[in-house]
Queue: 2 jobs
Job 1
Amino acid sequence: MTIRLVLAGCGNMGYAMLSGWLKSGKLPPAAVFVVEPNADLRKRAEALGCSAAADAGDIPADAVPDLVVIAVKPQVIRDVTAAYKRLGDGRTTFLSIAAGTPVATFEAILGDRAPIVRCMPNTPAAIGKGMMVVFSNRLVSDDTRRFVADLLSASGEVTDIDDEGLMDVVTAVSGSGPAYVFHFIEALTVAAEKAGLPAKTARLLAMQTVYGAASLAAESGEEPGVLRQQVTSPNGTTAAALAVLMGEDRLTHLLTEAVEAARLRSIELGR
Ligand SMILES: NC(=O)C1=CN([C@@H]2O[C@H](COP(=O)(O)OP(=O)(O)OC[C@H]3O[C@@H](n4cnc5c(N)ncnc54)[C@H](OP(=O)(O)O)[C@@H]3O)[C@@H](O)[C@H]2O)C=CC1
Ligand SMILES: O=C(O)[C@@H]1CCC=N1
């Protein structure tokens, strides 16, 4: 079958996206060629029905994929991208998910004919519940934008931005954000255990509470603040807890600091 998509890097995020695409049926596994040096990760991709190789040099020489997805660490991005220079003649679109790395870095390597899309996904993409934020260079045609948006929509919500400078804060909010929520689950579990619940029950309550609350916020169409007030009886238990979290805007300050730390790191990674 014709290779339509090359995935360079099938680690945490590359695999999450690949799984979402294949599950949706938008892409047949046989149309995907994975380049990944780690043998175990190659096997994992092959188990999905994709072809895989350790090196970009193993891609059939006559292959002209619609899309090359660059899903490697920002630290190796230049070397990895250079291996695909032959595909920079305008027929193949490049989609990078690397934190920090600007479109200009790819343009400098691939030349001035390559359509380049920069996307910031997150790991819930693996189950079709990701958040994908997309910035495209001027060579990406409307047709290609639609094609990429359709593919990415298999992984969850897709939104465009036209100011690339905002990608660092996007990364700090939705790219890294699932880790903040996972840590919240961990922290609530610890608090529940410290207050006397058995470990298994503590974990179940923390997990289902976050899942249920996020689902209610997404599905009810109600503002989070209104939903919060619906839980908070006057002078009740929730009010007592919220006085700790919201007093002096504690949690908001903490998250503002965390997002700023991630944003600054994203800028550093792009240098
Ligand atoms: N994880 C996340 O939640 C998110 C990650 N991202 C971005 O996604 C990118 C990948 O991150 P993540 O998946 O977490 O990282 P991983 O380390 O899990 O995956 C990257 C994979 O690329 C492999 N690799 C190294 N060199 C090459 C090469 N020359 N060709 C092909 N593959 C290669 C690595 O192998 P080896 O380990 O052997 O070097 C590794 O398996 C990063 O740029 C990150 O900023 C974006 C949004 C969210
Ligand atoms: O931690 C990181 O750098 C990557 C980018 C966003 C999520 N993970």
Job 2
Amino acid sequence: MTGSEAAPVAPEPAQAPEPAPAPEPPLAAEAVVPEAAPEPAPQPERPAAVDGAEQAEAPAVDESLAQPVPSAEETAPDAEPDALAEQPLGEFLPVEGSVPATSHLAPTPPHPVVLPAGDQASEPVAQQQAVITVPGPRTAASVPGPAAPEEAPASDPVELVQSADDLDTRAADQEDRQDRQDRLNDANDLNEPHPADELTGPTEQDQPGPHARLDPHARQDPHAPQPLQGPQDPHARQDPHDAHEPHDAHEPHDAYDPHDPQETSTAPVAEARQPTGPAAPAYDDAEREAVLKVMRERRDVRNGFRSDPIPHEVLLRVLEAAHTAPSVGHSQPWDFVVIRSAETRRTMHELALRQREAYAKSLPKGRAKQFKELKIEAILDTPVNIVVTADPTRGGRHTLGRHTQPQMAPYSSALAVENLWLAARAEGLGVGWVSFFDEREMVRALGLPEHLEVVAYLCVGYVDEFPEEPELMQAGWSRRRPLSWVVHEETYGRRALPGEEPHDLLAETVAQIRPLDAKALGEAWERQKRMTKPAGALGMLEIISAQLSGLSRQCPPPIPEPAAVAIFAGDHGVHAQGVTPWPQEVTGQMVANFLGGGAVCNAFANQVGAEVCVVDVGVTAELPSTPGLLPRKVRPGTADMTTGPAMTREEAKQAIEVGIETARDLVAAGNKVLLTGEMGIANTTASAALIAVFTGADPAEVTGRGTGINDETLARKTEVVRRAIDLHQPDPADPIGVLAAIGGLEHAAIVGLLLGGASLRTPVILDGVSAGAAALVARAIAPEVLAACIAGHRSAEPGHVSALNKLGLRPLVDLDLRLGEGTGALLALPLVQSTARAMHEVATFDSAGVTEK
Ligand SMILES: Cc1cc2ncn([C@H]3O[C@H](COP(=O)(O)O)[C@@H](O)[C@H]3O)c2cc1C
Ligand SMILES: O=C(O)c1cccnc1
């Protein structure tokens, strides 16, 4: 690790007005010695100043960053990059005059990324699944010897060259353009600025960027100085209106020509009738633009209604538009009840209020706070309310299309609602759809015929203005999902926009991971210095707040709330080797417990206001569908790693993708921090094996007692780990291969959660030993993933200590926990939130009139 990497995370000298993002090593040295740091903070120390034997209590930090002035030895090109990171915990002493730092802000790429051959081909999921016999549970006593692998490993791996040209990033690009069209606010959109925009910045042209660093060909010398930060001026890149518009292929066309092969599907349809004569004409540009405009600018309005009456002819036009909607079998199942009576509206308002309260009670605290601020209806603020119903009996029993899909009747009425909504927007009328009703209660309250279904309750009126973005987005409740996430080519999972090659979810995610933003980091250090407290007095929390700033590109950073813990559950074939006294079915039973709210993680999540999201990525038992459970089983448990690979490479990758998609969903749903959690009986065995491979430690050093095992079982577990590694000889340069050989499905999913979180610039708080193991895998795939990672706690498992050391992550909480489920991460959440809140709320010396020393 080099000084230039370390520099951006350390506070710049008091004399320097601007942070020096990637200075020469001598400057870097200056930059990290703050003028005012009188007290030795609880911070890491250079090894030179350490007497290891006496430092057992010191905090766990990779000093390669804590020590920002690299010695000649450390910067020597042939030095092992992680050698310094492998110092055991507790070997670091506070250094006078420096602020604690942690090397995860300056990760070193350990290996080129290797993905399985054919990864880019994205075969349909069903075809990718290999049939693997999962051995049934055995007793602890029956420990078979190693056997031949059950399966040959997948075909030769190919190296993924992660340059912007090679990865399919055009989808995101098209999204950017779509955003421009939609006049969306970039800050609230999940779209990243196009990677190419970033790569053309002046600093990244001169220095190897994150992609170059991942490109094995570009990284001849892994020890060469590597920049941590992006371009000097991130704001220059945040405006997607800037430059880089050579993507005409996706710009709106002047006239659509169905015979232009560029514009049509390339797959011929055998029976298609040969076209004769010209196709029906499209709208002209202005007409089309008007249609698209009304869709873009339609809003679900709750705020800013006016009491102005709606003229009859205006309301008539709106209802006529609704009545022209498509409907199943042309059954036109809708009716519109126009309500103006204040009394009826008051009754409906009462009903909605009650439902609102019930919903608020069901929310995690972090969400409930946000919900309290939201206006969810405008029943009393609007002159007209319209109830849209569906009559499921209209048209008789033979209504075309309703035979197999009875829900087509309410769907049809929903289309009438959309027509109404668009027509209202064109009239300058706002519409808000209120869904806080018990449908049957509403039917009775309104005296509607009992056979009707209520599809929508709409509040309609003139408004002061139409918000530019959905009100829920403006309130931070949710974020917009890019189109490229939801368009699949031919089969689900082959994501591609029309005219694009299908993009690989993992490669796309990795390509979007960026280092911390140097400008925001610099601002964070500057702000920490001006806050009314002695410099460095918040110790490690100052570093976390700077990390949050660099990650979000904002100073102060957003408060990481609401939070969600993703608990990935999976089973392990290695359970058959007697590595744990607990039966395998406990995994599924604990999943039920999580969903019922009875586990430790539930209590902790309630305490800190986090949502618990449970994901079945590979539980052996079939789990009944339950609210709160995401059914994402890649396979029912892994195979026994001592007799063959735990899973195929494709399965490992699928499980990673489950994690990526979980991160996307949770972030799009408005969560501002993610926490890792897991459940899987025997998973500490897989964790130990992963950690041994990535740290190079002997299995005896990193294998622990998990749920609590005796010496005999521990000895057996250690030998199991050793045998599995001997059998597979996993190559840490091939992280997916390692996962497939000796990992768990929940480990793979956590890898995806970390990569997904990092790609969305969302912090992820790591829990215990499985998260540590997964972070090692994730770092081997994308070193800069660590920019998003915060170590929540230090577990009692010895392997966790080794993993954190290797990662250079310093845990926030150290309470000898050895549970998992996300419990340690949940306990750390308030610390992370506190540091961000301090950045927002603590006065500066100037503003508070406090004299500086
Ligand atoms: C009742 C119960 C609840 C748990 N919650 C988390 N774990 C934790 O223990 C398991 C790993 O330990 P080992 O490798 O020794 O089996 C994982 O499921 C982990 O989440 C639990 C374990 C049990 C038994
Ligand atoms: O610390 C952990 O993460 C842990 C320890 C024991 C069992 N399961 C998880």
